[in-house]
Design goal:
By secondary structure, this protein is of the alpha/beta class. Helix content is about 50%, strand content about 10%. Strands 2-3-7-6-5-4-8 form a seven-stranded mixed barrel. A three-stranded antiparallel β-sheet has the order 1-14-13. It has a two-stranded parallel ribbon with strand order 9-12. Strand 2 and strand 3 form a beta hairpin. The longest helix has about 40 residues.
Length: about 550
């Protein structure tokens, strides 16, 4: 394996460990399940995110995000209807007993403490507060519900939970400034955000381009091999030496090991997540992105600069490289370096997506699923992997390992770079819609295989498997986004929906058409060997 392939394999391992989920980045994750505390009179509000805009000495300052309580009055949705009200720190801090000073319609900020949320709200209202801000003792947000046996629920002020870091910032403002005021409102999210539509198109379009490139390369290699066999019957070349030198075929063992290694890598990321480790991932991503972007550009430009693409020079450490590759490489390296340096700016997502898409297309060109059996094993393992690390890992680690790693909660940064992301431009809450590379790569391996089979079997578009596989993937990803919105924005394991749609469609269609045995074992149509036909014709002569 040469250096370029080695870099890609290392990067892909990091990518697959973050099969991930589509989600939107917000100011905190709501971690409390309220299934055991159903709505009842006085405690029947819907949970909504609340913006807390601050002013320090009359100057607009930071904005924080919290979650409204099940009890109390509802919060206005429009900013123009929300008043600026003075913020006061509670005394005692937890407000589990009546505040020592009367409040003149102030917003009171309290610590979470050990008493009921409704007790704090009743005490604050009795003291004259107009709203209650409760600071959580953790980074996450917490849904404030009512106890099953509570009856004192006649609360007429809104209550909002803020994460711990927001509370620390507000306390610092109150202690170092003479006047702090806040404005509370809860703007409504659009039913469908355009960012999710574009993210869906990016994922489907990436697989579409990669599949056609993979199928075209496979067909060209098959034609070249057939010509060599016909030209030299006595010198039959090794199949792996003709046209497939740059292709890596996965087998069932490597498919299982791939997911196992990805799990180990994910745990390492979880345990060692820090600023320097994110920086290491950025370097790794840039190496893979440079290789991917270079491969894609060389493939495109070689149609116009054929001579430069076919003329090679031996470079120490890297081996033989074409002149076109040497010309393109500086641009690709510069592009990745500029993105890495400025990746925190608002438009850096464009560079990240370009590098990511180029990497995915290149991997789908190089790594092949040879048959349906290997594809089934790979996707089934990834299906279980996704479910375990998003949902089941909560039982072992007390938090979702996949979500923590993808968000970069312990790194002090915005998360790992192995994601496609688009800003939610029309969402008043901002943030990004994201999807992990693995949610494109793993199904893409099977879909690219379907098009290679269709072309080698000379199937028409209607009679082929590729259109149905693409349709199934698109529907699976669409269902994922529907589930994401129904689950209040919680991260969803996309392969939970994509794998049944894509793999199920392929298996059912192969069974119905009678091709399942060939697809499962051989992965390519049965064709008579060219040199056997030639030898038979010579015997007749």
């Amino acid at each position: 394996m040469d250096l370029q392939k080695l870099c890609l394999v290392i990067t892909v391992t990091a990518v697959i460990s973050l099969v991930c989920y589509p989600s939107s980045v917000t100011a905190g994750d709501i971690v409390h399940d309220d299934n055991l505390a159903p709505k009842k009179p006085g405690c029947e509000n819907d949970f909504v995110l609340v913006k807390v805009q601050t002013w320090v000495d009359g100057v607009e300052d930071a904005e924080f995000v919290g979650v409204g309580a099940r009890f109390g009055t509802t919060i206005v949705s429009k900013e123009k209807n929300a008043n600026q009200i003075r913020l006061t720190l509670s005394d005692p801090l937890d407000c589990c007993s009546a505040p020592k000073h009367k409040l003149d319609g102030d917003v009171i900020m309290v610590h979470r403490g050990h008493c009921k949320f409704t007790t704090k709200a009743n005490n604050a209202e009795a003291a004259g507060a107009s709203a209650l801000l409760i600071i959580n003792n953790q980074k996450e947000l917490y849904k404030m519900v009512c106890e099953p046996d509570e009856t004192d629920l006649d609360i007429h002020i809104p209550a909002v939970m803020l994460p711990q870091d927001a509370g620390s910032s507000l306390e610092k403002m109150l202690l170092t400034n003479s006047s702090v005021s806040v404005q509370l409102y809860s703007p409504r999210r659009p039913l469908v955000d355009i960012a999710e539509v574009f993210l869906w198109l990016m994922a489907v379009g990436t697989i579409l381009c990669a599949s056609y490139w993979s199928a075209w390369s496979a067909r060209e290699a098959a034609i070249e091999q057939d010509k060599l066999l016909k030209d030299a019957v006595d010198e039959i070349p090794n199949e792996k030496a003709v046209g497939f030198s740059t292709v890596v075929d996965i087998n069932t063992t490597s498919a299982v090991l791939f997911v196992v290694i990805a799990s180990c890598f994910l745990v390492i990321l979880y345990k060692l997540m820090s600023y320097w480790f994110i920086e290491l991932l950025v370097v790794l991503f840039c190496i893979g992105g440079v290789e991917g972007l270079q491969t894609c550009l060389v493939a495109l430009l070689s149609r116009w600069f054929k001579h430069a693409g076919e003329s090679y020079i031996k470079v120490p450490f890297f081996g033989p490289l074409s002149y076109l590759t040497l010309a393109v490489a500086p641009f690709c390296i510069a592009f990745a370096v500029v993105w890495a340096v400025y990746r925190t700016v608002s438009f850096a997502w464009i560079g990240q997506d370009i590098l990511g898409i180029a990497l995915i297309i290149t991997v789908l060109q190089i790594v092949h699923v040879p048959n349906l059996k290997v594809g089934t094993v790979l996707l089934s393992c990834a299906f279980l992997y996704d479910i375990f690390w998003v949902f089941v890992s909560k039982k072992v680690f007390h938090e979702s390992v996949m979500i923590v790693v993808a968000r970069g909660d312990r790194s002090g940064e915005d998360g790992i770079p192995m994601l496609l992301k688009i800003p939610r431009l029309f969402d008043p809450w901002g943030g990004y819609s994201i999807i992990g590379f693995g949610d494109i790569l793993l199904p893409g391996l099977l879909i690219a295989f379907s098009l290679r089979y269709d072309w080698l079997a000379t199937k028409s578009l209607r009679a082929g498997y590729f259109p149905w596989a693409m349709l199934a993937y698109g529907l699976g990803l669409l269902v994922t986004y529907v589930a994401l919105n129904l689950m209040d924005g919680h991260g969803q394991p996309a392969l939970l929906y994509i794998v049944p749609f894509t793999l199920g469609t392929f298996l059912a269609l192969g069974k119905k058409r009678g091709d399942l045995r060939v697809l499962w074992t051989q992965g390519e149509p049965e064709t008579p060997c060219s040199h056997v036909r030639l030898q038979h014709s010579e015997e007749l002569d």
